[in-house]
Amino acid sequence: MSSDIQTADNKKSEVDPRHEKRIELLKLLFAFSFRPKQEPVEQLKKIVAQLSEIDQTISALAPERPLSEISKIDLAILRLIVFEWTSSKTPKKVLINEAIELAKEFGSDASPKFINGALSQLLEDNK
User: Fold this and answer.
1) What pLDDT, on a 0 to 100 scale, did the predictor assign at position 122?
2) CATH class of 2-125
3) How far apart are CA 7 and CA 1, in angstroms?
4) d(Cα 31, Cα 40) in Å, to the nearest integer?
5) How far apart are CA 64 and CA 101, in angstroms?
6) Which of 22, 29, 52, 71 pairs with 103 at a CA distance of 20 to 30 A?
7) Is 106:77 a contact under the CB 8 Å cutoff?
8) Could you state, in chain order, the average pLDDT of each consecutive group of 10 residues for the chain (127 residues)?
């Protein structure tokens, strides 16, 4: 039994630091969504500076759901991933996978499917 615990501990220590950074940014973006007039913390300044363009992209990906009807956590996940999509060299399929994992961890039961659908559309549009 102790080997099972050790295996679980080893898996916890193997968490990708990029995933941990995304979780931290996601939490900051989520909190920012409740106080958008407040000056963003340093880690969010680049994302907030592009928020208008990011939101336009999200609106185009999910035209049946106005931004105001997307849950704040789903919107934060989409904003984070769309920002990274345009500003990093991370493979697009990796970003979609990461978004789905974040949705499973922080969103509702419907979040992973919604986010997968929206971001898959982005992948299709950029082929």
Assistant:
1) 77
2) mainly alpha
3) 10
4) 10
5) 23
6) 52
7) yes
8) 43 72 95 90 93 94 91 97 92 93 96 94 72
Q: Which two tokens stand for residue 60?
A: 């185009």
Cα separation, 18 vs 26, in Å, equals 12
Residue found under tokens 């099972």: 4
At 7, list the tokens: 């295996």
Q: How many other C-beta atoms can be found within 10 angstroms of the C-beta atom of residue 95?
A: 20
Joined tokens for residue 29: 């973006």
CB-based contacts of 82, cutoff 8 Å, min separation 6:
54, 57, 58, 122
- Where in the chain are the domains? 2-125
Residue keyed to tokens 């007039």: 37
Q: Which tokens is 64 given?
A: 């049946």
